[in-house]
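re: ur question from earlier - yeah i can do the single chain one, its not a big deal. heres the input i used so u can compare w yours
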Amino acid sequence: MSSKDFENREMDVESSLKRYVPNIFQLLEPERIAWADISKGYKKKVLSRMKELEEKGTETISVETSFLDIVTQLLNGKDHYYNLYYFINDMMFADFIQLMTAEERKLVKTTIYNLVVQFNRTYRNYVGELAVLWIYKKQGWTLLRVEEPIDNDNPKGTSIDFTLVKDNKGGYVEVVNIELNEKNTFDDEIISKHITGKIEKKLADYAESKKPVFLIPVIWGEYAMIKKVSDWWESNKIKIKDVSNLMAFQSYSASDGEQQVRFGYIKHLIPLTNPTDETAIRS
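and the output i got, formated as tokens:
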């Protein structure tokens, strides 16, 4: 299809999501969302890619995959992105519906909305945040607030992703998403500089916090890269005050050949059988 033909086509993001991501509509307030504007913005993004292809005269170009790209691929009968999609809709969102109160759902709707409207790979930042929250909810924590300021006297200053409570114990949780590639995982020295640099930069943002912030790093990359980072982390026995072990998403084939997906600490993900990589978590 030419870009000119595509330009005359209607795009309906809301209908696509209802078909493939139905759980999202129980977590958002769909009647208050400007779906036509989202459809228009996404169509503009796709159209620009098509025009770039035509101008370059090539069959492919490098693009940053968005969540709506994943849904579009499913609509076109391509399931290369299925595992990440399954994790988001059938695992994470489905559990939120069961585990969250109405008030908690209101608190996360902006994060979920941002996941949808990012037309590049920054959508993964919101997946990372929600995945960490998913772990906490499965452990019985209650979400009290999102984006709480580190200083109540400065409400527009630096904020904390999640404020949670369990058994009268409170917790302030911040997520930092870290992208892996061949360059920043070339060797242990570069890995150390990349991972610790990201963590230290984020910790510096909370150095003056009047609340005890716990930082959770989520890494995104291919299995081989995640394994290299895991080996470095474990062999050096990395422990950083107020920072959890690294977490990640990974898909793999079980012993019976069935596709499985997990999100958790990388030390538990690495011994998987037949790990599979998806371009959805690369670019």
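The beta strands are 142-149, 159-166, 169-179, 213-220, 247-253, 259-265, 275-276. not sure if urs matches, ping me
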